[in-house]
Amino acid sequence: MSLVLDPAAQDLLFREAHTANTFSDEPVTEEQVQAIYDLVKFGPTAFNQSPLRVVLVRSPEARERLVAHMSEGNQAKTATAPLVAILAADNEFHEELPRLFPAFPQAKDAFFSERTSRESAATLNASLQAGYFIVGIRAAGLAAGPMTGFDPAGIQKEFLDGDHTPLAVVNIGKPGDGAFYPRSPRLAFDEVITTV
Amino acid sequence: MSLVLDPAAQDLLFREAHTANTFSDEPVTEEQVQAIYDLVKFGPTAFNQSPLRVVLVRSPEARERLVAHMSEGNQAKTATAPLVAILAADNEFHEELPRLFPAFPQAKDAFFSERTSRESAATLNASLQAGYFIVGIRAAGLAAGPMTGFDPAGIQKEFLDGDHTPLAVVNIGKPGDGAFYPRSPRLAFDEVITTV
Fold it and tell me: What is the ipTM for the molecules in this complex?
């Protein structure tokens, strides 16, 4: 065994975990979301820039506004999931850098004075954090249904602002009937990993 | 307890895990890399597009070429880590889509016929997978040292091609003396997560 992670944890987070497309009615509590964040906030980002921002869409009115911006195939599940989260990148994350990276507070001005470099750093690092967040949802015994099929400009206008870019919308809850599609094939090791 | 993941696994993957800046001499084996991939390959991506590609830089000659493209502060650790991996996004991932997403083989042409949409999808989804990969390194009992301080054009030219964009370079191994800097502060829940 080359992994030291407990096999049950491997199953919970990766091997047995599946993207869910239907959900039960069981609510996702604030305590669960807090526990997920308190775990995954430790995942590494460059300069600890931590650019991920999350909007939890809980009210029926807000849910309706969100569903209108989802692709047709994503609307029904987004309308009925116990909780839906918009994951976004904060392109002005550098404002927090002196506090977040006290070892080198100059990083804010030295590396991120230009918006274009901030945007590419925010997209990369918030996407890394989105990966951690999906793992964290599973760590809470919940299923995630991450989606990128939506109108980004519409979601940005409705729920964010010009400084925040939506990356993914994630349905969260206990899986319902027929939640899982068959596992799609994965690339072989040699198709992904080469050695020089 | 709102998490169902075993507390030891929480510590291994997030709470006690730290970015490493020095490493022991213990090698990282092919078996370990295979085990990491065989775990994290199951992490979800949009349409199962799986755009992450990894170059393991093992030979001294290749390592020297890589170090030349790293930022000065990253050179010493990249020169001495037991294993270094270049994580890249394959912007031509759509060629594999009919095989990877048999439920909707038309996705290749319906959504990804344009290079610009492929590039943004590849960056987002390969970054998600980079997050899973870092978690997987920790699942193998190893420390990760992910870095974005390098010359992307130089690394692309030396190790990749015009269709592959480098996202991060990751040092991998058992931590050495003084491997860890103090944990930097994290944002509070309310600074990251809002509810509507």
Answer: 0.97
